Amino acid sequence: MAFVEIENLSVAFGRSMALRGINLSVERGEAVGLVGESGCGKSVTWLAALGLLPASATVRGSVWLDGKDILGAPKARLEPVRGGRIAMIFQDPAASLNPVHRIGRQIGEALTLHRGMTGERAKAEVIRLMDQVGIPDARNRINAYPHELSGGQNQRVMIAMALAGEPELLVADEPTTALDVTIQAQILDLLTTLRRDTGMAMVLISHDLGVVSETCSRIAVMYAGRIVEEAPSGQIFSHPGHPYTRGLLGSLPPLTGPRRRLVAIPGSVPEAARMPSGCAFAPRCDLSTELCAQVDPAPLPLADDHSAACVFAKPYQRNVHPVAGEGAFARERVLQ
Amino acid sequence: MTGITRRHLLSVSAASTAAFAMPRFASAQSTERPAVTVAVQRISNSNTLEMLTEQSNVGTRIYTSYAETLIGNNWIGDMSLQPQLATSWKRVDDQTVDVDLREGVKFHNGDVMTAEDVAFSYGPDRMWGGGTVEVPENVKVVARQALPAFERIEVLGPHKIRLHNSSIDPVLEGRLSGSIGMIVSKRAFMEAKSWMDWARRPITTGPYAITEYKPDSVLTLSAFDDHWEGRPPLRQVRFVETPETASRINLLRSGGADFACDIPPDQIATVEADKRFKVVGGPINNTRYTVFNKSHPVLANPLVRQALTHSVDRNLIVESLWSGRTEVPRGLQWSFYGDFYIADHENPAYDPDKARALLRKAGYNGEPIPYRVLNDYYTAQTATAQINTENWRAVGLNIKLQMVENWGQISEGGPETRGIHDWSAAASLPDPYVQMSGSWGPLGSPWKSNQWRNEEFGKLSQELGSSTDKTRRIAVWRRMLQIIEIEDPAYVVLHRNASFTAKRADIKWTPAQSFVMDFRRHNWSA
Amino acid sequence: MSGGTAELLEARDLARSYMMHRGFLGRTTQVRAVDGVSLSLSRGETLGLVGESGCGKSTTARLVLGIEPPDEGAVTFDGTAMPRSGTSNWAALRRRMQMVYQDPLQALDKRLTIGAQVAEPLDIHRIGTSAERRERVAAVMAEVGLQPHHAARHPQSLSGGQRQRAVIARALVTNPDLLVCDEPISALDVSIQALVLNLLMDLQERSGMGMLFVSHDLRAVRQISHRVAVMYLGRIVEEGEPDAVLQDPAHPYAQALVSAIPHPGKTAARVILQGDPPNPANRPSGCAFHPRCPVATATCRTEVPVLKPRRSDGRRVACHVAHGEAAPARAPTMLETC
Amino acid sequence: MLQYLLSRLLRAAVSIVMVVTFVFVVLRMSGDPATVIMGADAPPEAIDAFRKAWGLDQPLWVQYFAFFEAVFSGELGRSMRDGRDVVAVVLERVPSTLALTIPAFFVNIAVGIPAGVYAALHRNSLIDRCVMVMAVTGFAVPSFILAMLLVLIFSVTLGWLPSAGQDSWRNAILPIATMGFGGAALLARFTRSAMLEVLGQSYIRTASAKGLPWSAVVWRHALQNAAIPTITIIGFMLGGLVAGAVVVESVFSWPGVGRLLVVSVANRDLAVVQAVVLMIAMTMVAANMVVDVLYGLVDPRMQGQARAARR
Amino acid sequence: MVDATSSPAGTGGSLITRLLSRFATGNRMPLLIVIAILWLVLMLAIAVSADLISPYRFTQMDLRNRLSLPVFMGGSWRHVLGTDELGRDVLSRLITSIRMSLLIAFGATIIGAVIGVTLGFVAAHFRGIVEQAVLALVDFSAAIPFLVLALAVLAFFGNSLVLFVCLLGFHAWERYARIARGLAISGKTHGYAAAVHQLGASPWRLYGRHILPNIASTLIVSMTLAFPEIILLESGLSFLGLGIQPPDTSLGNMVGFGREYLSSAPWIMLAPAFVITVTALCVSLLGDWLRDRLDPTLS
């Protein structure tokens, strides 16, 4: 069994279904990308798994951590997991840090909590962690407040805080969306390095296929509360099986080659409260037939590790393309 | 609530009441003299205790406890003049009075009162100006109004003085009982930093001495055991300022006070519902009336004013608002005027039809007449004003009721904006001259401010003040009343004011026929 | 359309500073948001303006539109100088220069229908009779791909893409000569971005208007622009054909920017810039990029490089190293991109 | 921080100047104080003399500048009623008012904040609803009605507490309770909403995701952040306490500044009213400054500017 | 803005219709809010039809029938709520008082909103010295508790209905000014207003057609918060003898004059006190609810 196994997870806020049965597993040391447009349920999946959703949400399904279901577990069991085994960082680092506490204290809090460190020992470890995530002048910055740091530095603080509990899995929820391109590159690079150094697993949530493709070995594409396609990252680009994935790829302007007219997905994401019957993507899909409006397709295996939830998805032979998925580790930091 | 029984509640309440009231009630039974607390609406309008600056009803209430005049009044009885700091007095001629002073009178500072002190009390440093101390302007004015022809006091001996007046004054002795004539210690006065400093802490001769005065809050008087009448009956008298009627009553009911003054008639039943308390008092020598401004274009016509006087239902007001506890006087005069009391003088009758007829005759066409009213400056003033307004409206008068905050706003503006307002009049001498001529004669403020003038009345007023022919003076007085109340009305008399004081039922104490509260030996037993 | 031969838009040496107040009495610091920017744009042409947050690209857009006056320099539109903001000449010019915004929901009035808002420029400039206005609104809505029934809807009941179409329709209803797009796609979902880019390109092709396309997204800029200018801390550091700039960036910053673009399947090495973009309030001396520049020299720390054509290929770039005026501190090891 | 303080001081000074001007304009232009003080019966000569004595016969602008000069030299004049220095008159009353407002202030805080926090943490529970009903009611019941009901119950019916006067500490209980109730209600409401807002913030989620037990999240992370908006409300509350004192002191015959104001206003004792209004305004301005400084202490973002500049 | 000033009752009406339509369209509304709205509708209906439903003229006296008991305390049906110290029908006075108090509260709320919004817009539009002047005025308002200010002004300028309403209108102006200024500035710098400005619209069009309607919901919420405060202020000032004066009557005035009869004839005071409290309660409940629904950002 995988390290974390999410099984048939569904979340509803009142009458609107945010998640409609998610199945996702993360192996130890693996980097999984979770891609989708706003409102597709990427973040909700992991907030639900860790019990961080408000009480108004109805959560069903199971989340197996090392074979034990932690979904709806009592606080006493859940609290050591949060930050200790599964850590999470969020989109807007400035808002995710407590504005009135010094960053050293915020990192130290996790150390005390999960590793029982206090006083000078904790302080030394905080400095080490800050060094590790590349915050310059850590010894002084320990006393800084979040508002005194830039967005990129704050995200590094968040990462240091997440590392403090020595988690086995880091869930990074759109960690670079609020940041500039060059800073985004820094953070992605840092995450990759850290993963290489610590061997922890990572789930990278992003709306940007480019971001996940570089960092993750496996990618799950979400649409309207479902995973519609899941594959090793190379295969997603070489053999996109779901029309939505194809649409996403087609709408990205190319960086090289001749400029072509972009292939866009018409229409817009359905509202959670007004989900169409059948395939949720059918109204926007140029392949859709009457069948699509009736059948809600189940994931269909297309190749090893590759499945897509589309009735028209066609199985294929793997290894046609030489660009295999180890790209994330092939990064080389040229200028350091 | 289930855990606490009724008995428990009662015992707690009894215990706490006792604890709170212990010092006062207990001391009443011991050899030590009791102390009383009096809840009043106001202690002093001017925040001073010197009667030259505090010419008000509320000042009248307190000053007799700490200050004395040469001649006193029998406040509880017939208002007659009595010896106080003077043992006897004698007219030398029309303009001169000799006074023998009481011996052995001590001031609160221990000094013995001499003729020097008396002469000083009536002297330039205290009231006329031009002496060594600067006297506030308004003090000089008040003094001149109270003693219009005063010349000087001559010291004839250590305990004998002679008062010189510059003109004939039939009521000169009576004027010596006026509150401004409180006798003060010359030494203490001269030691005060300024006139106003003195005014807040005068050193006088009364049965109680001022121990603490916190303006707008509390006045504490303590027994002055060297008083010439002997030890006063109370160890202490505290006047606690409590502007809210309900608060005063509550203070009494909760044991925080032994007396609550200025009780509106409507509250009498409420207070007396509790057998521990009693409301005493009744009509006093103060008459409520409503005055007209002759300069107002509509009110210039005497017919309109007559109509106003004929549509006031005095008896209804007395019956409803006062529960019949006061009376309607025969015009602006008092029965203690003696021979000067015109017993057959009638108020203008309540006669709406006559009023309507008068208005028709006057050609009145609903022009608005402003009526400025202070919010319950007088007891039940607002209610009375609303009753009058309704009655006036009923006969076709267009009265605009305007509530104002203070006296200044009543006299604000030109003749058109001033119309009707409320007033009261008090007399303390058995002669109409001081009251009537002082208020409405050429020396009075309505005359000076052009509010009401009548040439014939003016002449008669002067004659009333200068003539010594009693018969003639009575005739003049009769005619004056006729002019000012019937022919060319300056005001309409409503009723006698009444003062009601709630007190502990076990205290034997009699209210005065005025606002004065008398806490001397003869008026106390508990 | 007077002065047909002149460039549609000319901006010379624009500079704009803001005063940053610290409290009521506090020191005021001058922040030069835009510092000596010159650009020109002809009809039918799209200029892409790229840079990271705080580089002054949006301020440049506002200066070009005359919404704010520049402290230095001048803007010429169709041969005439830009009137002062708020004057009636300025207001009249609005019908010829329009703007598309980053967040369409914010740029639209939630209380008014789409139809009313698309018609608003016509109302303001009193163009046509009411019947003509209705006709024009219907036409322009059809042109941007909105259904007639959308006219009666309110912005919140439309999807993000439809809202941006409505904003574009409002901008186009007066047939402007210049369209300034300030980050028009960055608030939109990926799938919608493509729709808007396609639409803008189609519209330009049809109307021949000039377009200034401000974005931090190099891919989008490449897609739509005829020329691209890269800004860093208020200055243009490189300018040229999009393909040339993207494939062979001359300025080290442009190199880093290009290499930072995440792209599916991209495997090549990447330049990772160190440190954060500096605060515009304390601008580094010399070349503003030198503290982060991998190849900075002593010259870069003291002398401000001028934007001028490179000798080798005529690319306009502002870098001492690129011009060979200073030897690179370290050999640039990468400089090949995907 | 220093700059921040200086700028606050300057704004405070501007406020004070405006208050002084306002007081002068309203009180001097609205009517003739001479007739008020002297009474309706006073002869014109006496009124003229009074005017002269108080400088009321001077041109208005002369009076205005004289007034400013006097204010800045601490000379606020003498009470027109009894000739005392108004500063002394007002200061004499201050202890009485403080004896009510300070305890009431602590009641507000001691009751309002815990109630608000509790209600926020147990949103939609029965206690939350009770707190909110009390809070809204506390706001809706006029303080004088509350005061009179309290007197009726505790003084008249039960006889536990005195109803008026200032004889012992027991006299202060009902006025303090009256003033405390309204303020506590207000504070509970604001604390609750501030707390709810904080609980919805991202960093609370971060703290939970870190594995902090909920109680630690509330105590260590939520409370201090919720204190920031609450402090602003406490600043407003001071104004409410002063206004409350005016009414409550009247009901309970408590000889404080509020009573002094009501009495002086009724008598048009200009100097005293001026002094009271000025003093209240200055207290409020000072209190608001203290609140701002507190704000800075609680919220490091306020000091941040200066710090960032130094680096 | 224009129709708001011309018919105060109309604003309340439209607000209520909107609320009711919200209710009708199926958005769930707590029972308490429904009750609050019903109470306010009742108050409005009473205010509008006061002359028709009032059994007696409110000044009509029956001095022989003073302090008669209300029905629920054993009185007669002639005077359902009893009579006061002058034998006037308490019910009739209550009805007239409701009209007067609502008139004052509406009038003052609207005056405050108009002044505040205007100054807020002026500050936002001109910025610079004008803005500083407005902000100084705002500071000044914050420096004096309103009751103290009102006390001074009323006592010194005397009392008239117009002055009273205008004075109370100043009560919350600075709140509206702050809101209007803040929202206008933020709208102007990045948002629909910036867009409209760049279209070449005149300030009138910008503020009147765009900004005002957009901030209206926030303003209405603040108005519902200020409304009960004004009702309470009116009663507080009346208690101190500075409010509405006889022969006119208002809720606060009734309480003020009735307080002496609290123990002997409590119905005189309790009926208006109840109406004050419940009305203030209902409006603030409604305001809180509206804030949650319409404007979660307002703190």
UniProtKB/TrEMBL annotation, chain A:
It is a peripheral membrane protein. Keywords: ATP-binding, Cell membrane, Membrane, Nucleotide-binding, Transport. Residues 4-249 form the ABC transporter domain. SMART domains: AAA. It holds the Pfam family ABC_tran. It comes from the Bacteria. The keyword Ligase does not apply. It is found in: Cell inner membrane. Transmembrane segments: none annotated. SUPFAM superfamilies: P-loop containing nucleoside triphosphate hydrolases. GO terms for molecular function: ATP binding. Belongs to the ABC transporter superfamily. PANTHER family: DIPEPTIDE TRANSPORT ATP-BINDING PROTEIN DPPD (PTHR43297:SF2), OLIGOPEPTIDE TRANSPORT ATP-BINDING PROTEIN APPD (PTHR43297). This is ABC transporter ATP-binding protein.
TrEMBL record, chain B:
Residues 1-21 form the signal peptide. SUPFAM superfamilies: Periplasmic binding protein-like II (SSF53850). It is found in: Periplasm. It comes from Rhizobium oryzicola. The keyword Signal applies. Residues 81-439 form the Solute-binding protein family domain. Its main location: periplasm. The lineage of its organism: Bacteria, Pseudomonadati, Pseudomonadota, Alphaproteobacteria, Hyphomicrobiales. This is ABC transporter substrate-binding protein. PROSITE patterns: SBP_BACTERIAL_5 (PS01040), TAT (PS51318).
From TrEMBL, chain C:
Pfam families: ABC_tran (PF00005), oligo_HPY (PF08352). It is found in: Cell inner membrane. Residues 9-258 form the ABC transporter domain. SMART domains: AAA (SM00382). Keywords: ATP-binding, Nucleotide-binding, Transport. InterPro entries: AAA+_ATPase, ABC_transp_ATP-bind, ABC_transporter-like_ATP-bd, ABC_transporter-like_CS, Oligopep_ABC_C, P-loop_NTPase. This is ATP-binding cassette domain-containing protein. Its main location: membrane. One of its GO terms (molecular function) is ATP binding. The lineage of its organism: Bacteria, Pseudomonadati, Pseudomonadota, Alphaproteobacteria, Hyphomicrobiales. It is a peripheral membrane protein. It comes from Rhizobium oryzicola. Belongs to the ABC transporter superfamily. It comes from the Bacteria.
TrEMBL record, chain D:
The keyword Cell membrane applies. It comes from Rhizobium oryzicola. The keyword Kinase does not apply. It is a multi-pass membrane protein. It holds the Pfam family BPD_transp_1. The chain crosses the membrane at residues 12-31, 98-121, 133-160, 172-190, 230-252, 272-298. It is found in: Cell membrane. This is ABC transporter permease. Residues 94-291 form the ABC transmembrane type-1 domain. Keywords: Cell membrane, Membrane, Transmembrane, Transmembrane helix, Transport. Belongs to the binding-protein-dependent transport system permease family.
